[in-house]
């Protein structure tokens, strides 16, 4: 079984910008590469799960999203990081799909290609809905980062709250 770090995209991997789909607007969060190398060296694999309602709202196309995703994965690869999968919910919030976080379909899809050790996996997100997704699928280890959407740290349901993904080595040790 494999230990997985499930990562939200916007606000965790890259600077939060509403409805981001252009490569020229994409900015990696400081420390993302070094943190993922650290985790990869501990034996973790990475799966990105991201709500992309801009597709369902008609702000950008699935093809534009795919172009950005391919570029992002290549940037990780050039930095020695393997991304095992990227799953997105392309639906607008009112479409009542089964994949929009906090629903679990993106993780269910990942489980079809990876033998996931849920007990020893983690989910890193910037919203309460990210954290709830983990709990809905019995991932007990969660981290909420402050680099994305604003939230009340005192009310977070995450196991840990940290400033940024660059602080992950202070939390995950094995």
What report would you give on this structure?
The protein is α/β, with parallel strands linked by helices and 174 residues long. The protein has a single domain (4-170), classed as HAD superfamily/HAD-like (Rossmann fold, 3-Layer(aba) Sandwich), CATH 3.40.50. The chain has helices spanning 32-41, 53-56, 62-78, 105-111, 128-136; strands at 4-7, 45-51, 83-89, 122-125, 141-145, 160-162. β4, α5 (128-136) and β5 form a beta-alpha-beta unit. It is globular. The two termini are 15 Å apart.
The share of residues in extended strands comes to 15-25%
List the uncertain runs: none
User: What's the CATH class label?
Assistant: Alpha Beta
Q: Can you summarize the main beta sheet?
A: 6 strands, parallel
Taking strands numbered 1, 2, ... along the chain, how are they ordered across the largest sheet? 3-2-1-4-5-6
Number of strands: 6
- How does CATH name the architecture? 3-Layer(aba) Sandwich
| Rg calc | 15 Å
Cα end-to-end separation: 15 Å
Helix content: 25-40%
| Helix run count | 5
Q: How many domains, as an integer?
A: 1
The secondary-structure element order is EHEHHEHEHEE
| CATH-defined superfamily | HAD superfamily/HAD-like
Q: Per CATH, what is the topology?
A: Rossmann fold
Q: Structural class given helices, strands, pairing?
A: alpha/beta
Mean pLDDT: 97
